[in-house]
Amino acid sequence: MKVLFACGGTAGHINPALAVATELHRRVPDCEILFVGNPDGMEATLVPRAGFRFAPYRSMGIQRRFSWNNIKYNAKSVCLLVTARSRAKRILRDFAPDVVMGTGSYISAPILLAAAALRIPCMTHEANALPGVSNRMVAQKVDKFLLAVPEAEKHLPQRQDYIVTGNPVRPEILAADRAAARARLGVRPGQLCLLSFGGSLGAQTI
């Protein structure tokens, strides 16, 4: 069995895919797994660190704010978009997956659209209550569409079989020992410990 994951851009897209891949590998040890992502994105570091194969697929999003730098950025994005489908099909034909899974972001859309065109079973997962542009693009092309929360369906094209699964969680989080973690951080018993964190790329600023 071969499974291809298309994800990237932010940890919010990468980590759910890694959680699914890790559980899949645990249940089906001989399953062959390949991740496709941007060679300049954090997926190029996170995926090999998790022990999975990584294939580079260069893609860029679109900047909506008007500035000279964004104009240059968007020009590069359009150039990559012109060849996106053919490059995606090449990866799919070379790896020949049995199923393709995306988790949103500008990386996953061309891969999923190419998989649908090649009649390879494909699915995507939306982690947010407000779906991103990429998942809205592929909503009527993928075989299965998974949602973290039911509210997301209100913002997606109509189809009858949206599946609410929640968000995949990495096994190291589920297996974490609270007492051991507090001890490692030097938090005394009974002492208040407040965690403040940010999602997406905002986490780096915090």
Number of strands: 7
Put simply, the count of helices is: 8
Poorly predicted parts: none
Structural class: alpha/beta
- Per DSSP, what share of the residues sits in E-state strands of 2 or more residues? 5-15%
Using the CA coordinates, give the radius of gyration.
Answer: 18 Å
- The level of helicity is 40-55%
Order of helices and strands: EHEHEHEHEHEEHHH
Overall 3D shape: globular
How does this model look, in words?
The chain is of the alpha/beta class and about 210 residues long. The protein has helices at about 10-25, 45-50, 70-95, 110-115, 135-140, 170-175, 180-185, 200-205; strands spanning about 1-5, 30-35, 55, 100, 120-125, 145, 165. Helix 3 (about 70-95) packs parallel to helix 4 (about 110-115). A seven-stranded parallel beta sheet has the order 3-2-1-4-5-6-7, with helices on both faces. The model has no long low-confidence stretch (mean pLDDT about 90).
How do the strands and helices of this protein lay out in sequence?
Elements: E1 2-6, H1 11-27, E2 32-37, H2 43-49, E3 53-56, H3 68-95, E4 99-102, H4 108-117, E5 122-126, H5 133-138, E6 144-147, E7 163-164, H6 171-174, H7 178-185, H8 202-205
Parallel strand pairs: 1-2, 1-4, 2-3, 4-5, 5-6, 6-7
Helix pairs in contact: 3-4
Descriptive terms for the model:
globular, seven-stranded parallel β-sheet, 206 residues, single chain
Brief overview:
The chain is α/β, with parallel strands linked by helices and 206 residues long.
